[in-house]
Amino acid sequence: SGDSAPLNEAMAVLQHHDAVTGTARQNVVDDYARQLAAGWGPCEVLVSNALAQLSYNKQNFSFCRELNISICPVSQKSENFQVTIYNPLGRKVKHMVRLPVSEGIFFVKDPHGKTVPSNVVMLPSSYGKTSRWDLLFSASVPALGFSMYSVAKVTVRTPQASSLSGKSRKSR
Amino acid sequence: SHVLSIENEYIRATFNSDTGLLMMIENMEQTLSLPVKQGFFWYSANIGDEESSQASGAYIFRPKHSKPMPVSRWAEIHLVKTALVQEVHQNFSSWCSQVIRLYPGQRHLELEWMVGPIPMQYWGAGPVVFRRLTTRFRGEGGHQHDYRPTWKLNQTEPVAGNYYPVNTRIYISDGHMQLTVVTDRSQGGSSLKDGSLELMVHRRLLADDGRGVEEALIESGAASTVRGRHFVLLSSVSDAAARHRLLAEEVVLAPQVVLAQGGSPYYSWA
User: Which of A137, B5, B194, B206 has its CA 20 to 30 A from that of A60?
Assistant: First the structure.
């Protein structure tokens, strides 16, 4: 069974300025991390239960704990994936979604199946190192609601295949 | 060109391509333009002096000198322009960089800063790093600077004594234009001089301030690098409050993004 109370209590402790601004001793910081981790586990179960009930489908949901460092295994490795954007504000917002992806071309579709403009940008900070790419698209989200966008990676043809198709087009 | 710029339908930011630094922000909707200098600086922390033995530490901000040092007087830049984003990536040093960004339809400039790990070959007890925006605005010597309306203040700390908690936003104005910076977290900030605005972003200190922690702020793990965002709005004073309130709402209650692999999941709309 899931439980959000331990995370709730850990977050309450972390309202202290020692946690907010980093004025704690190292052993206190370690204890903050311990309390957060202990609270997070039963909260994942709670969220899994809620998602299973919403989707009428009990399955093993995975949780990403690397969001804070711009790493996303789903968007970086999947050929197609869904992006759900929740808006907690009481008015409609336009939000530029920015996700780390692998190099390539992507098609993004809005909740009505219409293709929306998207760009893949190489991050200049990665020049000379392992290249990093971000996918950008603008999402429109209703007040206190959510929008679901689908993203599909276009399979890149090999140079040989490209040149062959180019030749055949030319001959026509 | 000696000048490069990023712009959308509302905002234009102009950079000096020789120094890589921001020169001007323009609100094209209201035909306002403001020359701006922007950079990162650091105060050297105090380990105690003849006036007081108090050192800078986790609780106490007490710089050794009032005049800060620039992290760099120029920035190496990369420009990225696509249909959906225009960005200038500024690299000030091996440990200090930022991206100045504009998306279509945005009425603000987004400044994403990244600082750390701060090297420790600095003088004194370590550096306190901050962002400073300097404009030509004239006022009364900075906001709440060395002044209290109901009593005579004897200001003994010219910098720290004028630093205040900034929870969501800080602004300066000349009565006609207003420059507002919305923060993504609580930070220390000040307007120490006319037209100047600064926000503390990071610190690494060798001394303890003797207030019970008994450990210096020398983070060596993942927290030694900090990344955050400042959102800069230039508008008329009469229009500023409506804009920074709406923007701060969007920053504090930002949309949450959730990903799922594969095709459409069978969520119930009910």
Answer: A137
Q: Helix A26-55 vs helix A5-13: angle between axes, to the nearest 10 degrees? A: 150
Cα distance from A62 to chain B (closest Cα, Å)?
A: 9
Average pLDDT per 10 consecutive residues for chain B, totaling 270 residues: 88 95 97 97 92 90 93 94 95 94 96 91 81 90 78 91 93 94 94 93 91 83 83 97 96 90 58
Q: What is the C-alpha R_g of chain B?
A: 20
**Cβ neighbours for B162, distance < 8 A, ≥ 6 positions apart:** B142, B144, B145, B146, B155, B190, B192
Check residue B143 and report its DSSP letter: T
Q: Determine the residue among B80, B110, B166, B258 to mutate to test chain A binding: the one whose Cβ has the most chain A Cβ atoms within 10 Å.
A: B258
> Is A124 close to B186, i.e. CB distance below 8 A?
no
Q: Do A139 and B264 touch (CB under 8 A)?
A: no
Shortest distance between the Cα of B265 and any Cα of chain A, in A, equals 7
